[in-house]
DNA sequence: ACACGGCACTTTAGCGTTTCAGTAGCCGAT
DNA sequence: ATCGGCTACTGAAACGCTAAAGTGCCGTGT
């Protein structure tokens, strides 16, 4: 509890307890080789001196850092505004906390830089495992990790993109089905989608599912790809609504764009939901607070974070992990969707 | 580039370059003691073998981790929805990235746990510096860091709360002045504020400033404290508007509550801005996308993150840091504010 | 011709743990 | 009484790096 001017090491604790440093180590780590009495004594002394094993020394000796690596794509505007990442971090962190693991976070400006960071982690051993996010089609990171199997890696992406790497996948195609069927049942026959970047893996998955299902149901379907920003969402909305025979319903790939789209519709004098139904992929407070509230495909992102953390801990433990599935999407109906207008 | 089954160390590089391990170290770290020719050779070999110094060993040898610690208060709901934290992380990360520093992130469920994490960092040396956020009045962390001056610490809080610790402060009182004067000039005489938790330092600072300025200007002022969540924001709005002689303007302590408040007003049939003006503290995309757009006190949070990172790096370098000031708030006028209604 | 300083290295000693290989003492079995 | 096998420890090596101290060599000034 008291402040110490000079650094206290395991030897200080050993001396103060009248044993050797190895005894202290055994005592601290709950290993056999010390009597209950000495163990208690050592722990008491350690607490009094405020000693904990030095992280670097420990990491060096057992080549375990108790850290998990996460690279965030740098786009402060988007990162900040999209609740997704922070929710995921909450879930990851909460679960890691239980096992005294930390998150090591870096920002990357682009894909090359991210690859560099990952290679750095592989070479320096600064993390015990890492999580891959936002995979693209043919993402070079997959290949990189395939060649470095000693670094436990979990991909958070559709299993079709991860080439057999341990994966936490979500049923995006199923969710597309739910959403489209819902709109179909409301009588919509011309729908549009404001999607994320085309090269992103899950855009691709959703693209394919949308095309297939709308075709099957005989609906007209149009898709605009964006960069996920609110500006792009508003702009896409304007373009979609400016043509004759505009869609009667729009599905946005994230809630930020959905909110921006709803505002844009108001600006254009298009009434939601009477003239236009709006849906969001991913649900957050924004969908709730919007006026009218936005119908959304809800999923438990914090829960996914927790799951991802557990899977990575398994991998670190040497257990096998294949493809696991996130908890499913659920449609959350609010006021932004209604039967399609006549005509 | 090739994958390696067995771990490569500095000795492998040394052998392959025909020099000793220290020569490799000197070459890599740009220190004198090796010729340009050997340096080039060593670097080439290192690249070919894919070698980088092991992080733990390096940290142990020079007691520097190149990591900065950040404890996030765990409230996934709030954390995710409030763009503040993620913006800050973006700024921090971007600046740290330049110097090859990482963020070490942990989640804490409550204050005690956070103190525990900090003590752990102090004892284990797992971070080179740390950033304190969301200080409360008489926050125990201040005392803790005062007693452990060997751990460079920057507080992101009003300087009046940090007892002389290196601090990045903001002019919250000044911002209160701007906001209140603005509403006063629009003719508002009864204003209210939906604030954050009372025990939070910056709530306190703003509370004091609001009381003082509204008194000076002879305005009626009412303040409700909340937990920052959208639900609380909506609820507070309802209560404020339900009394006779309700306020003609409400200022919210964050944009999440402002958005929720605006929605609530719509539900209650109170017209914004004709019958009620709304302002938000902190500006984000939500203020922009809301309909009507919400007038806000804008500040550059990413910039603050960058500044904080720079200051922490200075501290790590042994430089003195006193009290620095964030870039000032600026009023961003949108459609949610208008002259006070007659009567 | 000779000390001298500087350069380009090498050797060695940490850094603070963990862990493996002993070892001393004791107890029970022979 | 002797031996084997525990238990409860100790000593020392190993982890992979950095950095201080040491060494040989060469060019220079006198």
From TrEMBL, chains A, B:
UniProt-listed SMART domains: HTH_LACI
UniProt domain HTH lacI-type: residue ranges: 8-62
Domain of life where this protein originates: Bacteria
Region (Disordered): 324-343
One GO MF term: transcription cis-regulatory region binding
CDD domains according to UniProt: HTH_LacI, PBP1_LacI_sugar_binding-like
Keywords: DNA-binding, Transcription, Transcription regulation
PANTHER family noted in UniProt: ALANINE RACEMASE (PTHR30146:SF155), LACI-RELATED TRANSCRIPTIONAL REPRESSOR (PTHR30146)
Official protein name in the record: Transcriptional regulator
Biological source species: Bifidobacterium cuniculi
């Amino acid at each position: 509890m008291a402040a110490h001017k000079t650094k206290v090491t395991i030897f200080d604790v050993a001396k103060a307890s009248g044993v050797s440093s190895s005894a202290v180590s055994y005592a601290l780590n709950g290993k056999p080789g010390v009597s209950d009495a000495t163990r208690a004594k050592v722990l008491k002394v350690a607490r009094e001196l405020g000693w904990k094993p030095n992280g670097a020394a420990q990491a060096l000796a057992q080549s375990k850092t108790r850290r998990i690596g996460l690279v965030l794509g740098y786009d402060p505007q988007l990162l900040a505004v999209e609740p997704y990442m922070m929710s995921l971090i909450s879930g990851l962190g909460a679960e890691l906390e239980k096992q005294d693991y930390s998150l090591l976070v870096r920002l990357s400006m682009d894909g090359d830089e991210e690859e560099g960071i990952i290679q750095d982690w592989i070479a320096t051993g600064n993390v015990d495992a890492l999580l891959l996010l936002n995979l693209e089609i043919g993402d070079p990171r997959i290949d990189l990790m395939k060649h470095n199997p000693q670094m436990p890696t979990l991909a958070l992406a559709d299993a079709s993109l991860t080439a057999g790497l341990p994966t936490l996948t979500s049923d995006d195609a199923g969710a597309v089905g739910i959403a489209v069927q819902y709109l179909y049942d409301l009588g919509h026959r011309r729908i549009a989608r404001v999607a994320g970047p085309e090269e992103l893996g899950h855009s691709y998955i959703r693209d394919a599912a949308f095309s297939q299902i709308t075709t099957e149901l005989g609906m007209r379907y149009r898709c605009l790809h964006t960069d996920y920003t609110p500006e792009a969402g508003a702009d896409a909305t304007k373009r979609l609504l400016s043509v004759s025979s505009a869609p009667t319903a729009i599905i946005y790939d994230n809630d930020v764009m959905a909110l921006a789209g709803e505002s844009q519709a108001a600006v254009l004098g298009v009434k939601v939901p009477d003239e236009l139904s709006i849906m969001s992929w991913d649900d957050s407070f924004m969908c709730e607070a919007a006026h009218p509230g936005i119908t959304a495909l809800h999923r438990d992102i914090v829960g996914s974070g927790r799951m991802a953390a557990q899977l990575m801990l398994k991998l670190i433990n040497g257990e096998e992990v294949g493809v696991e599935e996130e908890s499913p999407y659920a449609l959350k109906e609010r006021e932004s969707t209604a039967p399609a207008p006549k005509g």
